[in-house]
Amino acid sequence: MNEGNGNKMTGAGLLIKVIAVLMYAGCLVALPLFTLAGLLLRSARRGKGRVFITARSDSVNWARANFTPIAEADCVDEVIAVVDGPIVEHPRIVPAPPPAWLARICGRAAAKLLWLVVVGLRRPPAAVIGYHIFPSALTALLVARLLGAKSVYQMTGGPIEIEGGGWRLENPLLGRLGAPSPLLEWLTIRLCRSFDLIVALGARGRDYLVTARVPYVRIIAPSIDVQRFASNNRDRGIDVVFVGRVMPVKQPDRILRIVEILRQEFPQVRAALAGNGPLFEPLKTLAGELGVQDNVEFLGHVERVEDLLRDSRVFLLTSRTEGLSIALAEAMAAGAVPVVPAVGDLGELVRNGETGYLVLDADVPASAQHIAGVLRDVDKRQRLSDAARARAIDNNGLDAVAERWNQSLRALASQAG
Description:
It is a single chain. The protein is α/β, with parallel strands linked by helices. It folds into two domains: 11-223 and 398-414, 3-Layer(aba) Sandwich (Rossmann fold); 238-396, Rossmann fold. 44% of the residues lie in helices and 15% in strands. The protein is built from 14 helices and 13 strands. The strands form two sheets. Strands 3-2-1-4-5-6-7 form a seven-stranded parallel β-sheet, sandwiched between helices. The chain has a six-stranded parallel β-sheet with strand order 10-9-8-11-12-13, with helices on both faces. Helix 1 packs parallel to helix 5, helix 2 crosses helix 14 (398-414) and helix 11 packs across helix 13 (378-396).
């Protein structure tokens, strides 16, 4: 079956599509029933100032960037985190992961949905926030309707969570579609129109939703601790740094090929790759094949990433897709000059030639050319570094992001219904 763009849906992909369509259609059918049940269950004790969040958190850093500004919003008294994975310690964040036995019985996604209901009946929320459309945001939508709360979807990955039904996602289910599905995309948009608020990370995500006639969209970026990444203004010893998961969507082989080009002008160029993932060992092998093994350090997990970023001149991404990279914001706050692909909402931070460089299709020669220019010209590097830090503080500083959440949640509470 061919669903466009030259991508053919296999038999397995077709089965996944049928399952996903049934699930999304089931959510649409269930919404009015959950709303009706919510009218019967709705408590006069609706938790003013209490927010539920549900997500699959991969790291403390991700949780810190996304959960802390909500907890810091003036109108929030308590954040109940129904999250399986690491979360950040904060006096207003209360961990409430679903019990392991429940996850074993019905799976992680269903366990979070059921546990949200259990906890929500005891401690009614004012709003339920889900990260990524499937399954967390759809879970948040259903539970919010049942509990009479406001529903919020943070479109963490950008428009690719919706485009083609999410077939380009690194998602255990949707990522196996193998080809775009217009039907699944249509169903996803219909569901998006049911949320009380959708949070996009940048203008590209907002514009996509507005074009799809989705109401109540606001831009709120993840936050960073700008003091943690404050530049020490000393000489930087690393020319090029990458921080992130070493996985196919990041296209990390291109980083090595960029270093291979840079070696022609800068034989002693030094690159560092921080992070683990399925391509970690194959990447080491490729470095040997390209002859750059002496120029690249494979650091694996780095606990104090701020030290690494403060010691780096250029921050490099070669991803096929991105939302708004937290690592990018942190690198810019540390004064590293970004050279990144023109995908997702990265352009929200990187203004070409002003705060760094955007590269079409993560092109290897073009990326190498921009990096060489930054390494070659100290004055240019300092100018871009200063501008990058200022932009990261303005867009991702914790105080600014917390205030955006505060305004959005107050506006949400004032909505009728």
